[in-house]
Amino acid sequence: MKKHTLLFISFSILVFHCQGQKKEEYDNSLLEQWPHHIKLSWETSPENSQAVSWRTRATEPKSYIEYVEATASPFFEERIKKIEATSRSHTSDDGLWYYHSANLQDLQPNTQYSYRVGHKDQWSEWSEFKTATGQNEPFKFLYFGDVQRYIHSLGSRTLRQAVLANPDAKFMLFAGDLIHRGGLNKENWNEFFPAAGWAFQNIPIIATPGNHEHKWETKETKEIAPLWNLNFCFSKNGPDGQEEQTYFVDYNNIRVISLDTSAKITPAQWQETYVWLEKALKEFKGDWVFVTFHHAMAGLARNRNPDIRFPEIKALLEKYKVPMVLTGHEHLYARGSMDAAFPIHVVSVAGPYQNAIQFSDWVERAGTSIQLYQEIYVSENKLEYVAKTVLGEVYDAFTITKDTSGEMQFEEAVDLPAESLLPTKDFEKRYDKELVKTYEADKTEYLQRKKQ
């Protein structure tokens, strides 16, 4: 009996020790303790600054960034500059975290830098970024619609394919709903940042908030979730109270304007936003303006209101002949112009959650049940737009050219593939019977209209 008792006690101690060891190992894992969710963005001018943000679980709340002009030699210790990050604590659904950020300034244009972040003996790997030239020269960037759901399993493949095919992209633009619940880390930010991993450490992000980036844990509100400002460092040149939500970034010869169409603001603040937007459009002296906001200008999901959502904004974009508006929200693909030749409105989706489409009259190219990313090539007098599937196949393409007088011309690419117009998974269960019943007839009418 004593022998059995001793064996039981010994086994219990072993189990307890192993369980404690597993927890200790987990608490001290790279994810928990070392800097991670490292990403680049811009708070100030891309040609002479670079914003970096990251997260730690360390007991020491301080964190630092070290940076140096890049060299092929690994022996650059003597030239390293080091600054302390701005650090804030935040308790989320998965516990207490420290969020850190630093805006490196007074950098040289068109220069590659190496950097790492951390503290004491816990540092990230060295990564590189390159400042903008500030000159008028050809370049490209990537644009993504909603990633939002099933990010780890399926959304990740779109981001990775886009980066693998375009390692020289200057930045990645996200048109909102990067995640599903903006106030939560689990299955949200904890999946999004690892989805592209190291690429976010080398290629800057420009993002506009979607409705899901607002305080939507159990119920949606229009207040931005704290994790938006903790995770990103965007420009603070927008209207008061909308810093890092509504803003613009000037990269070489283009201006990218973000509008937070989910913001909780008063009618007076909306008017202020309208005035701010007109000023941002009117005063820019570069070659091209891109406007991004989350909600497509008109509803396109089959069960949504197809009316124009922002008529005053639409009129302003048409008045200043914005070439392209890049949006999401509808969980499908659509491209076309509305009541004027410009802007060209694009709606796209990068993630696997898809909606069935209503074939609105303004849509010239549509797509459903398909994951996409977009390459946008910029030069002084020409924009080239290419939408590709997650397999890297061209799905849509067009060009916008500008003559010596500034007049723009649109031209769709020839020999585009057949449109993917498959109803979404569980179509019959998710939509009213009438919307299901009329789908095929509506699709046929849409395809016939395009032939005319």
Automatic annotation (TrEMBL):
The keyword Signal applies. It comes from the Bacteria. Residues 140-332 form the Calcineurin-like phosphoesterase domain. Keywords: Hydrolase, Signal. Its EC number is 3.1.-.-. It is an enzyme of class 3 (hydrolase). GO terms for molecular function: hydrolase activity. InterPro entries: Calcineurin-like_PHP, FN3_dom, Metallo-depent_PP-like, PAPs_N, Purple_acid_Pase-like_N. Gene3D superfamilies: 3.60.21.10, Purple acid phosphatase-like, N-terminal. Residues 35-131 form the Purple acid phosphatase N-terminal domain. It holds the Pfam family Metallophos. CDD domains: FN3. This is FN3 domain-containing metallophosphoesterase family protein. It comes from Maribacter cobaltidurans.
